[in-house]
Amino acid sequence: MEDRISEEDEYEELADDQKVAIGKWFLLNAPPGQVSQVAKDVREVLMDERLYDQAAKEAFPEYNVKNMISLEMPDGSGQVLLTEFGQLDRSRYLDPRTASVAVVDHVKQVCTEVRPADDEDLPSAYVEGFRFSVDAALMKYVDDAFQGGECSVYCTKGKDVEKSGGEFELTVVICNSSYSPKNFRGGCWQSVWRVLINEELRTATLQGTISVNAHYFEEGNVQLESSRKFNDTVTLQDGKDAGTTIVHVIEHLESVYLSSLEEQYSNLSDRTFKELRRKLPVTRTLFQWDKALQLSLTREITREFSNKR
């Protein structure tokens, strides 16, 4: 009998690559702004500095880009967003606004070096005029609408176009993260807008994706993830005002999405929570939601009479 119990209690030790994969999974799925706290727990669970270093080396670059974190450049020229659109290689990222390249340490989440960007990394002067126009309007919008938000505009197609009539694509990125451990909450707003500009037709076609992640962890652990795609086309009347026109459309569509989120939250208690309730409780009696207020008043009146007695 004892031999049988000992055999059942035996378990197979995980291989090192399996341990690394598990550690990497936890790091990649850390809520916005909380990867450092998760990393401490992963290090303790793995109990092997070599395995942790390997998991962190693989996970942090992917996590940083996925969450579009921003890092202060050492020369004080501003922030650089770590995005797939500005990624030159695993550790170098283009900042179009300052025409510079930032070298980053992903695990430490710091920018270690900054240098001027090469000509081949930058768009032509003609395309840069449009990019600059959109970026200027975007910064004003983000400053007004997002507290501590960061943004950038990249040329992702047709950066060699040098005269009117060509077609090129700009990608607009907005990211705003918030983490307040004392209030047990954190979250992130991300929006990516691909803007295809056709100078011959004088149009801008927008394809955007907005993603929101909210995390609440007071006496529990709840995460909300929501996203929506948008498409729109706008006519460009004047090249000088192209940036203002494009950003105005982005602002409108993001306001529509925000309004829909607020409407969902306002209906959360009336609809969503009711749908989560068991269709038929253990008592086998359906709860009459339309009489909830009446039942509550009845209980209050009964309690008052009992106290007076």
TrEMBL record:
GO CC terms: cortical cytoskeleton; F-actin capping protein complex
Record keyword Transit peptide present: no
Source superkingdom: Eukaryota
GO molecular function terms listed in the Swiss-Prot or TrEMBL record: actin filament binding
Pfam family of the protein (one): F-actin_cap_A
UniProt keyword list: Actin capping, Actin-binding
Matches recorded under SUPFAM superfamilies: Subunits of heterodimeric actin filament capping protein Capz
Quaternary data: Heterodimer of an alpha and a beta subunit.
Biological role: F-actin-capping proteins bind in a Ca(2+)-independent manner to the fast growing ends of actin filaments (barbed end) thereby blocking the exchange of subunits at these ends. Unlike other capping proteins (such as gelsolin and severin), these proteins do not sever actin filaments.
Protein name: F-actin-capping protein subunit alpha
Organism: Ceratodon purpureus
